[in-house]
Amino acid sequence: MHFGPDLLVLGILFVIAYVLGRLGKAIGLPAIPIYMVVGLLASPNFHLFPLDFIHTDYIELIAVFGLIMLLFSLGLEFDQDEFFANAGKLIISGGSYIAINMIAGFAFGFLVGWGTREALVIAGITATSSSAIVTKLLIELNRLANRETPMILGVTVVEDIFIAIYLAIVSVVLSGETAIWPVIGKLGIAFLFLVVMFSVARFGGKWVSRLFRTKDDELFTILFFGLAIAFGGIGEILGVTDAIGAFLIGLVLGATRYRNKIEHIAIPMRDVFGAFFFLNFGLGLDPSQFPEVIWPVIGAVAMTMLLNVGAGQFVAKLNGLGVQAGINATVILQNRGEFALILATLALAAGLDPRIQAFAGLYVLIMAVAGPILAANSEKIGGALLGTKKKRLAAAAQQAKRERDPMLLEEIALVEAATATLSPGENSGTEEYVDRVVEQANSQSDAEHRRDRDRDRNSDAARGTNGEY
């Protein structure tokens, strides 16, 4: 085989992805929609560039590696100690968020009218956040120290567990099995696999750590990558998908003392192979199907944003946080990404309605672009809705007034300090002077306050006259 033309095409696409990625980063966009757009531009259904692949099978195989590494990293980053330490609170918060979105998404899937199995897939596509985009936004927006951040991360942790269980159920449903006992048998195998792997992750970390006793980084990398691929295969053979197998072995390796080292090596691998996955998904998109799914996509976007407003405030209230924290949580958690595309890929492989792929692709493109933009401006949105900006300006003005005449304040402090040791009735002249100074300061503060209030009223009246309201 001669791979020269295909390698040239891939190289060009990655350079284009780099250029667009730099431009996207400048306005706060994540990489996922950019990789999808690059794949779409290079697809045989989109004739903008004269690019074509002679061999596509190996591209799909590399994309499978990307899928496996995405889910492997998700399992690796799962914080078991955090989850079990706050299990009750996290389950209530995350479970409430997922339930609100899942029920509405399932109902929406039936309204679309593509079929029952398609409705189940649509519910999953619209119900869960993108852990990659959520984490990236929290870091880039410097919100790791915010009060709502532990709540947001807690919701994503519960979503990770939900994804594992949901994929196990969906894999059985997508298999097309209709007889009751085979379905029960497949579900039983899937859940047994989940229980065994979760148990090993929880209690067998020390034993698994012994496998990684090597100082050779090359052998270390080969071992964990081999395990990720192997358990992806085991998951596929057991009927729970390669994605869930990779997630569970990542969960197990995340419980070892080598977690940080594995994560340090795995993240660049995830980014490269993940780029192949999103690029390959874009290659499979057919723009001619977009007009057919545009209204369902618009409906799904509107539903997701509206539901997340309510779900974000509800979860914030459960955690004793305010409205602004709820707004911050809403715009962060509404981002959709890799899991929606994984579900669409599984649905397409199972022979479901091909419009699912176009629906998921266009939906993720819109949500992954709008989400970060809204997240970057959530404080401004909250300020506009709650009037917190005016309150902050008023507080700053009051602080400025207090600092406007430091000489007078210093004079008061010095005189009070000088008279602190005087006995009652002693040096009454000094006390009278202190009283005059304090009264003068208070009168000056009150006069300034009245002047500022009158100026604000005149300014508001002028804006009303000019038609700004």
TrEMBL record:
Query: Cation/H+ exchanger transmembrane domain location, by residue?
Result: 16-373
Origin: domain of life: Bacteria
- The keyword Transmembrane helix is assigned to this record: yes
List the InterPro entries hit by this protein, alphabetically. Answer: Cation/H_exchanger_TM, Na+/solute_symporter_sf
Q: Where is this region: Disordered?
A: 420-469
Skewed-composition ranges (Basic and acidic residues):
446-460
Q: Which UniProt keywords apply?
A: Membrane, Transmembrane, Transmembrane helix, Transport
Q: Which GO molecular function terms does the record list?
A: antiporter activity
GO CC annotation, single: membrane
Q: How does it sit in the membrane?
A: Multi-pass membrane protein
Coarse class of the protein's main subcellular location: membrane
Compartments reported by the entry:
Membrane
* Protein name according to UniProt: Cation:proton antiporter
Q: What organism does the UniProt record list as the source? A: Subtercola vilae
